[in-house]
């Protein structure tokens, strides 16, 4: 629990809370970006450079833009008139607290908590690349296939619309 | 003598740090000196470049350009800076105050951060990261969100249009930008800009071993500078600003120093793009010939970077703006396939033994698809007499 970690954790949680409670949807998505950045900073503090920068590149550079576009194209980014809380938020909070307690108890009692700390391994980008290209090449290819299928699907959906309108 | 001149800034920093008592204080001082050096040098370059750009554009357009402040008008940037500092800061009443205020900062910070990984000279990279290139592209992508923040928070149709155009353009051109850099990463086997520059330090006869002097390197360099021009929203890809259509795009509602910050961020983006293009393909701080090694390495880096800036100013003075559909077609139908094929060409270069066959095969891999793609896309266009649908 070092000071930088505490600062980053506090900022991340504050941004996440803001993302849930702010009234304006665009503000919510911008706050969510703050949470993404905080998470990337946490990865960087753990010496996981690749994961941290990939987090920024994918989530801040692409996913955030996607969310913002989706918000603008659907509801116009105007603040809702009523309250943002659901009427049954107390029950939701209770369920969340119970689930959190259960998970915390399970993790505390599992073998993961009394494992010896492993010696610090410097995971360079080169090692990650080599692992991806040798040991994990099949999952990588499967994910690549999945993403290509999604891309082609998106193009087909977009194309059908155009043919109809003609 | 040449050696000490080459390392003069590094030695200066070491001397300054050594003045402090050893320990934590020294590492902090080292960090602060690096950050201050980057900010001061690039902000000064920005100021000089604004004058150079106005003079250059004036020269291209047969007029004088600024010529009142200082010798030949070269102190114009001082007048501009004072003007933007004392100008009233207008915020539209309907604007989203907080986001409107944060947008210029969110724009400047990522682009200033990207400058940190550039090796500005021998031993002169402020941040030597193992994943430096990934850092460069990841942090640079943060600017897209700032564009959206500026465009949306102004509550102005034109600024929202400009932001949408800018984001669509930046997202599209980011793909060929990264893919064209991938070739260099493949051949060097490292994501670190310092290692990439070190791989280009040798000389081969009278030619330096820069990646631009290989078939895949030339194609990659051209793709990279085109995509980088589009990324920094410069002419001929300046649709997001398009003065004649949407006035100034996403920063239309900004005035005074906030506008100056957007302006500065754009130039920081150009410096980062030029510096990275030089690092990846033009040998970074390496001299173009072995006997020119007496000129310090940082001078070469900044000369190459300013060469890129000059190229951008020249383009801005000469080329008309693209249309939105031309912009998108160019990115997805030409740039993206060329960048992908170029990766294959780089792989062939890696696996074939050095010699003439390697040159021929790789050149064929680059020139063939270029001709086919270019001809194919040109054939699709129905060129002829221009038809005005609404203006007749």
Description of the structure:
The complex is a heterodimer of chains A (166) and B (392). In chain A, 76% of the residues lie in helices and 0% in strands. Chain A is built from six helices and no strands. With 166 residues, chain A is mainly alpha-helical. In chain A, α1 packs antiparallel against α2 and α2 packs antiparallel against α3. Chain A has two domains: 1-79 and 95-121, NADH-ubiquinone/plastoquinone oxidoreductase chain 6, subunit NuoJ (Four Helix Bundle (Hemerythrin (Met), subunit A), Up-down Bundle), CATH 1.20.120; 124-166. Chain B is mainly α and 392 residues long. Chain B has two domains: 1-86, no CATH class; 89-287 and 309-374, no CATH class. Helix content of chain B is 67%, strand content 1%. Chain B has helices at 2-6, 8-18, 24-60, 76-86, 97-114, 132-140, 142-153, 157-188, 193-198, 215-231, 243-246, 256-281, 297-318, 324-351, 356-380; strands spanning 203-204, 207-208. Chain B has a two-stranded antiparallel sheet. In chain B, α3 (24-60) packs parallel to α13 and α10 packs antiparallel against α14. At the A-B interface, α2 and α3 of A face α6, α7 and α8 of B.
How much helicity do the residues of chain B have? 55-70%
Shape of chain B: globular
- Tell me, rounded to a whole number, the average pLDDT of chain B: 84
Along the chain, the helix and strand elements of chain B come as: HHHHHHHHHEEHHHHHH
| Total count of strands of chain B | 2
Topology record:
The complex is a heterodimer of chains A (166) and B (392).
Chain A: H1 3-21, H2 25-45, H3 49-74, H4 89-109, H5 125-134, H6 137-165
Helix pairs in contact in A: 1-2, 2-3
Chain B: H1 2-6, H2 8-18, H3 24-60, H4 76-86, H5 97-114, H6 132-140, H7 142-153, H8 157-188, H9 193-198, E1 203-204, E2 207-208, H10 215-231, H11 243-246, H12 256-281, H13 297-318, H14 324-351, H15 356-380
Antiparallel strand pairs in B: 1-2
Helix pairs in contact in B: 2-3, 3-12, 3-13, 4-12, 5-6, 5-7, 5-12, 7-8, 8-10, 8-14, 10-12, 10-14, 12-13, 14-15
């Amino acid at each position: 629990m070092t000071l930088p970690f505490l600062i980053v954790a506090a900022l991340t949680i504050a941004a996440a809370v803001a993302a849930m409670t702010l009234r304006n949807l665009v503000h919510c998505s911008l706050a969510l970006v703050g949470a993404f950045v905080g998470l990337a900073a946490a990865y960087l503090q753990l010496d996981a450079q690749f994961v941290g920068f990939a987090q920024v590149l994918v989530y801040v550079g692409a996913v955030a833009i996607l969310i913002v576009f989706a918000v603008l194209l659907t509801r116009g980014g105007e603040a809702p008139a009523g309250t943002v809380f659901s009427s049954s938020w107390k029950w939701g909070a209770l369920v969340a607290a119970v689930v959190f307690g259960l998970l915390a108890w399970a993790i505390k009692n599992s073998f993961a908590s009394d494992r010896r700390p492993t010696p610090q391994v410097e995971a360079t980008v080169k090692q990650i690349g080599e692992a991806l290209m040798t040991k994990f090449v099949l999952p990588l290819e499967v994910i690549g296939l999945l993403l290509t299928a999604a891309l082609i699907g998106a193009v087909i959906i977009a194309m059908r619309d155009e043919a109809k309108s003609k | 003598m040449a050696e000490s001149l080459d390392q003069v800034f590094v030695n200066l920093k070491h001397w300054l740090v050594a003045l402090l008592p050893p320990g934590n204080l020294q590492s902090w001082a080292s960090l602060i000196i690096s950050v201050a050096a980057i900010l001061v040098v690039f902000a000064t370059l920005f100021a000089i470049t604004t004058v150079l750009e106005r003079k250059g554009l004036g020269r291209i357009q047969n007029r004088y350009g600024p010529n009142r402040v200082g010798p030949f008008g070269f102190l114009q940037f001082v007048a501009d800076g004072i003007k933007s500092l004392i100008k009233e800061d207008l915020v539209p009443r309907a604007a989203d105050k907080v986001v409107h205020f944060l947008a210029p900062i969110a724009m400047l910070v990522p682009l200033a951060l990207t400058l940190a990984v550039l090796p500005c000279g021998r031993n002169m990279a402020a941040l030597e990261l193992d994943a430096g290139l990934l850092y460069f592209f990841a942090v640079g992508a943060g600017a897209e969100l700032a564009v959206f923040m500026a465009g949306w928070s102004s509550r102005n149709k034109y600024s929202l249009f400009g932001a949408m155009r800018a984001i669509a353009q930046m997202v599209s051109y980011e793909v060929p930008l990264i893919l064209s850099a991938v070739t260099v990463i493949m051949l060097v086997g490292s994501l670190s800009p310092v290692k990439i520059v070190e791989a280009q330090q040798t000389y081969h006869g009278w030619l330096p071993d820069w990646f631009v002097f290989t078939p895949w390197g030339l194609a990659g360099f051209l793709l990279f500078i085109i995509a980088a021009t589009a990324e920094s929203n410069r002419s001929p890809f300046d649709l997001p600003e398009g003065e004649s259509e949407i006035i100034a795009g996403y920063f239309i509602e900004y005035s005074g120093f906030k506008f100056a910050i957007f302006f500065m961020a754009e130039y920081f983006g150009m410096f980062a793009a030029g510096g990275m293009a030089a690092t990846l393909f033009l040998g970074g701080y390496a001299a173009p010939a072995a006997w020119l090694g007496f000129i310090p390495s940082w001078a070469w880096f900044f000369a190459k970077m300013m060469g890129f800036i000059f190229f951008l100013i020249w383009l801005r003075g000469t080329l008309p703006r693209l249309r939105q559909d031309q912009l998108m077609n160019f990115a997805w139908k030409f740039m993206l396939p060329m960048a992908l094929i170029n990766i294959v060409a780089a792989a062939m270069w890696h696996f074939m033994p050095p010699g003439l066959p390697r040159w021929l095969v790789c050149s064929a891999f680059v020139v063939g698809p270029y001709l086919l793609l270019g001809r194919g896309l040109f054939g699709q266009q129905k060129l002829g007499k221009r038809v005005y649908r609404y203006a007749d």
